[in-house]
Amino acid sequence: MSDGTTSPATSSVPRPRPGVAALRAYAPDDTPCAVDLSDNTNLWGPPPSATALLRELPSSAMARYPGLDARDLGRVLAQYAGVAPDMIVTGCGSDDVLDASMRAYAEPGERLAYMDPTFSMVPVFARLSGLDVRPIPLTENYDADPGALLAQRAAVTYLCSPNNPTATSLSRETIERVVKEAQGLVIVDEAYAEFSGLSVVDLVARSERLVVTRTLSKAFGLAGLRVGYGIASPAVAREIGKARGPYKVNAVAERVAVRVLRDDAEWVRARAADAVANRERFVTTLRERGLQPLPSAANFVLVPIRNARAVARAMSERGVLVRTFEALRPVSPALRATHGDAIRIGIGPWEQMEAALGALTEALRACA
Ligand SMILES: *Cc1c(COP(=O)(O)O)cnc(C)c1O
Questions:
Q1: What Rg, from alpha-carbon coordinates, does the chain have?
Q2: Rounded-to-integer distance, Cα 229 and Cα 242, Å
Q3: Could you tell me if the CB of 191 is within 6 A of ligand 1?
Q4: In this model, does residue 234 exceed pLDDT 60?
Q5: Interval 110-158: pLDDT, tens
């Protein structure tokens, strides 16, 4: 405006929805560090067949749209999960499937009941869908509280096992009871199932209200490609797919995922076993040093630590990045002792765990 006056167009900037304006953008610490143990991905890297396929990819994988609904991927995932192909719904990461599940099964204003602490994106997706979020504390031994969850009569109930960030598993009885008695949709997030060897996918055949979500971002080492999936009855899978929309799994990601599931399932299993072995060794060492990591069924451990942010910063200055949590709901004595402060450490090759132990020891000394 050369004459210095404000035009009506610039005085009326569009206002975002209040629920969006109030959200803080997802912003984990992403300081570059030589050893990054902050995001629970596969620290051995991607499976060898993924790297090989990317080198020989035809240009047709880019110029055209992917197949509608990622049907090739759906078929191999069905085989991997031991279900029929029409029971699979894929998405751009399992985040996409979680988000679409809420959109498909809850009207704005209806409730999402979820265990707390859990995956931080869940209440965010729920709020973006206009849902009324109802966190229900975990029990002292990190199980969900089925009575309190069911009492919410929620349109969608979210459970996570093994749970992020606690790394703990839910009991099978708890999940079975919630699935049996809930009114609405029940999501069981199994992003880390490959590390626990436990799954409730078998319950899907018996329930019209269950969706089990999984991902290729963690054990499968493909977080950058963004592929996730849900396993549900054909009717539920179809509705979630409609709410998600078409073409969410890109053509390159689909080809790589199909190749990895066909050729590298054994590589993935072996690395998951390595992670579990290193986790046990790491947890034992932490306990010997007087720390109280929560019992882990995943490829990471949550370590309650006072002053977690300062400790994590001191670790990153020593080249090791971990994830900080502050004021988690203090459901157990170990979390109460630190007012809910903790660091979450991903498990990878032993050299990386040694680096983590060294940095943690020095950081604790520096912050004492
Ligand atoms: C990492 C994670 C996801 C998301 O995974 P994407 O498939 O990469 O979107 C979902 N749930 C939990 C509990 C996670 O930790």
A1: 22
A2: 14
A3: yes
A4: yes
A5: 999 999 999 999 999 999 999 999 999 999 999 999 999 999 999 999 9
**What's the CA-to-centroid distance between 191 and ligand 1, angstroms?**
6
Laid out side by side, the sheet with 323-325 consists of 300-304, 342-346, 323-325
Cα angle vertex 282, ends 277, 285, to 5°?
A: 130
In testing the pocket of ligand 1, which one of 26, 215, 248 has its CB within 8 Å of the most ligand atoms? Answer: 215
Tell me the pLDDT of the chain averaged across its residues. Answer: 95
Atom of ligand 1 nearest to the CA of 215: 7
Q: How many CB atoms lie within 10 A of CB 327?
A: 13
Question: For position 59, what pLDDT does the model report?
Answer: 81
What average pLDDT does range 95-111 have in this prediction? Answer: 98
The model's pTM: 0.95
Tell me the backbone φ, ψ of residue 241, rounded to 5 degrees. Answer: -60, -40
**What DSSP letter does each residue of 182-221 carry, written as one string?**
-SSEEEEE-TTHHHH----GGGGGG-SSEEEEEESSSTTS
Nearest protein CA to atom 12 of ligand 1, as residue: 191
Q: How confident is the model at residue 9 (pLDDT cuts 50, 70, 90)?
A: low
For 307: left if phi > 0, alpha if psi spans -120 to 50, otherwise beta; the answer is left
Nearest Cα to Cα of residue 160 among 243, 95, 106: 95
Residue count of the chain? 368
Counting ligand 1 atoms within 8 A of each CB, the residue from 38, 40, 41, 94 with the most, and so the one to mutate, is: 94
Q: Is the CB of 99 under 6 A from ligand 1?
A: no
| pLDDT on residue 1 | 43
